[in-house]
Amino acid sequence: MGVDSKAIASMKVLPPYLIFLGDAPDRLIAKTGAGIADWAPERCAGQLRLSAGTVDLGLPDMTIEAARAAGVKTLVVGTASPGGAMDDRWLDVFRAALEAGLDIAAGLHIRLNSLGALRALADATGCKLTDLRDPPPGLPIGSGLPRSGHRVLTVGTDCAVGKKYTALALWRALCERGVDADFCATGQTGVLISGRGFAIDSVIGDFMSGAAEVLAPAAGADHWDVIEGQGSLFHPAYAGVSLGLLHGAQPEAVVLCHQAGRDKIAFFDGYPTPALETAIARNLEAARLTSPDCYCAGVSLNTAGLDAAAAEALIAETAARLGLPVIDPVRTGGGAIADRLLQGRGEA
Q1: Over 202-267, what HEC string results?
Q2: Pfam families under this entry (predicted)?
Q3: DSSP secondary-structure letter at 164?
Q4: Which of 50, 153, 194, 286 is the most buried (most CB within 10 A)?
């Protein structure tokens, strides 16, 4: 009954990619493209921007024609605007990509395959439209039953604070230490980086915890699954997916992620971000429904807005205040928290 966890591993979005950025003004809106460029640059041939004011990911600027000549296989929509909406102006770009023989992959809430004319053109050109938010069929409800293996889940004070980057940094650090570990992607960017997983925020609510169980199933005694978190328990719109992941992931540890200086939920001015101590306590309270001994293994700070000295000082101050290892997944890597995970719960 349900879906075999191995069935989710066959992600077939062919690289190299041309990252389509539309008119995204910053990396927050272009987080899908930025994540791929940062963590899987070998998959990226270039970027396509609609205006000079569009964010620059540091990839070569390419037209559809140049991308085709360079051997690009897939146009990847690299933006993730609130609600996942699609700008109508993009359709001309999509049509040109299909006519040039490129597949298209997108993680938008509006499905590419729901657009009749685009679907017909894809059929006529033999190209593929991949909707990254479509989960596999047959997902079960959560069982809540204990399962073997080790699991760590990244959680956040808000969306887009570094949960994916932190999970990737932890996974990389564990692998560097010779640990048998997997990165479990729960969003379209992670899927495009790793080639495995699905966007859990599109799973029907009753099946979210079961989907997390499928993503990180029972494993060997020495195996670690590093599970990418989504949303935030403190987010007025997206708390539901965070709770489903906490219950289904059944993590023995969580890592709290926060962007330095962010004092309110992005795009929701009336909602402040919580104190780190409060966020740790609430996430542990929720996680312990299915993982009674869950603990916080550390804190990950996104310090991209600080200079090196200020970032180092904030990391040190936060670690001293909380009594936990604190990292920035880009500046420091995940080693300090990976070591804590391998040492076990300790006294925290």
Answers
A1: HCCHHHHHHHHHHHCCCCCCCCEEEECCCCCCCCCCCHHHHHHHHHHHCCCEEEEEEECCCCECCC
A2: DUF1611, DUF1611_N
A3: H
A4: 153
Indicate the DSSP class of residue 273: P
Task: Fill in the amino acid letter for 302.
Answer: N
- The HSE-up count of residue 218 (CA atoms within 13 Å, CB side) is 6
With cut-offs at 50, 70 and 90, classify the pLDDT of residue 171.
very high
Exposed, middle or buried: residue 66 (CB in 10 Å: 0-12, 13-18, 19+)?
middle
Q: Which domains does the chain have, with CATH numbers?
A: 5-131 (3.40.50.720), 150-343 (3.40.50.300)
Structure tokens at 307: 């200079």
Using DSSP, state whether 325 is helix, strand or coil: coil
Alpha carbon distance 99, 125 (integer Å)? 7
- Quick check: 205 and 244 in contact, CB under 8 A? yes
Residues 74 and 220: their CA atoms lie apart, in Å, by: 36
Q: How far apart are the first and last CA of the chain?
A: 39
For residue 60, the number of C-alpha atoms closer than 13 Å in the C-beta half-sphere is 15
Residue 129's nearest CA partner among 143, 116, 142, 145 is: 116
Query: Residue 246 has which token pair?
Result: 């906490």
Nearest to 212 by CA among 299, 144, 279, 297: 144
In this predicted model, what pLDDT tens digit does every residue of 282-320 receive, in sequence order? 999 999 999 999 999 999 999 999 999 999 999 999 999
Q: What is the chain's length?
A: 348
What distance in Å separates the CA atoms of residue 229 and residue 235, rounded to the nearest whole number? 13
**Separation between Cα atoms, residue 316 and residue 296, nearest integer Å:** 17
- For 7, other C-beta atoms within 10 Å of its C-beta total 12
- Ranges of H-type helices in 74-156: 90-99, 116-125
| Among the listed residues 313, 312, 336, the one whose alpha carbon sits nearest the alpha carbon of residue 324 | 336
For residues 39 and 168, the answer to whether their CB atoms sit within 8 Å is yes
